[in-house]
Amino acid sequence: MTINCWLIKWFLIINENYFKENNILIAGVDEVGRGAIAGPVIASAVILPPNIKIDQLKDSKKLTDKKRRILLDIIKKEAIEYSIGLVSIEEIDLLNIHNASFLAMKKAIENLITKPNYVLVDGYSIPKLKINNNGFINGDNRFLAISAASIYAKVFRDDLMVNLSKKYENYNFEINKGYGTRNHIENIIKYHPCEIHRKSFNPVKKYL
Fold first, then answer.
1. Any idea of the CA torsion for 75, 30, 129, 35, to the nearest 10 degrees?
2. How much is the pLDDT for 57?
3. What is the count of structural domains for the chain?
4. ω before 203 within 30° of 0 (cis)?
5. Fewer C-beta within 10 Å: the chain N or C terminus?
6. What is the pLDDT of residue 6?
7. pLDDT at res. 108
8. What CATH number has the domain bearing residue 136?
């Protein structure tokens, strides 16, 4: 099915029911970890069935960890399909974080076995994606599929950083999740960066 991306963007804003009534599969995609100074960038893509309603589904950053996990159980049960895309620290340093974030989202979409007709992106459209897509600022508060992707990516990455904290005990990754908190930066100064720190980021590169 060929779909004009601008037509879809218009209808998404004006009449979301159009897609529900015509059984057009829409995937939402979002990434987490863009602002961290350690750990990978993680993206998730989620295809929700038409007419689904999940109460309190919104941007993962506005939810507690407990609430995210409750909602994620519902998302996994109700979704047509969901997937993860991961971009390593080495790729981030090579590509820069902007391009790495797009790559993570592209990987997540490509990892879907069920291919959507259209992709909703939190933020900006993904360049060179073979599937029509449009970006929406604050999309994780506007579209359920993006909200679902935001929650899945957030929980997945948080759990990954907790596991990595067992190997890299000096940085409290289980608490800061790789973000540049004051305590995290103090530990970088004290112990120097480890192999999962992003070498191209400040203040990491200062203490290599």
1. -150
2. 81
3. 1
4. yes
5. N
6. 56
7. 98
8. 3.30.420.10
Residue 2: what pLDDT? 42
Which 3 state secondary structure label does DSSP give 24? coil
Query: What's the one-letter identity of residue 188?
Result: I
The answer to the question of residue 184 being in a domain is no
For residues 55 and 191, give the distance between their C-alpha atoms in angstroms, rounded to a whole number.
44
Domain that holds residue 67: 5-167
Q: Which residue has the tokens 């506005």?
A: 62
For residue 40, tell me if it sits in a domain. yes
Contact between residue 112 and residue 152 where contact means Cβ atoms under 8 Å apart: no
Please say whether the dihedral angle defined by the alpha carbons of residues 112, 70, 23 and 101, taken in this order, is positive or negative: negative
For the chain, report the end-to-end CA distance as a whole number of angstroms.
51
CA 74-77-80 angle, to 5 degrees, is 120
Give how far Cα 132 sits from Cα of 73, 78, 111, Å.
29, 24, 16
Instruction: Fill in the DSSP letter of residue 117.
Output: S
Q: What is the pLDDT of residue 10?
A: 55
Using CA atoms, how far apart are residues 153 and 104, in angstroms rounded to an integer?
11
* Cα–Cα dist 199/207, whole Å: 9
Q: What is the mean pLDDT of each run of 10 residues along the chain (208 residues)?
A: 50 57 85 97 94 80 92 96 98 98 98 94 94 89 92 98 98 98 98 98 95
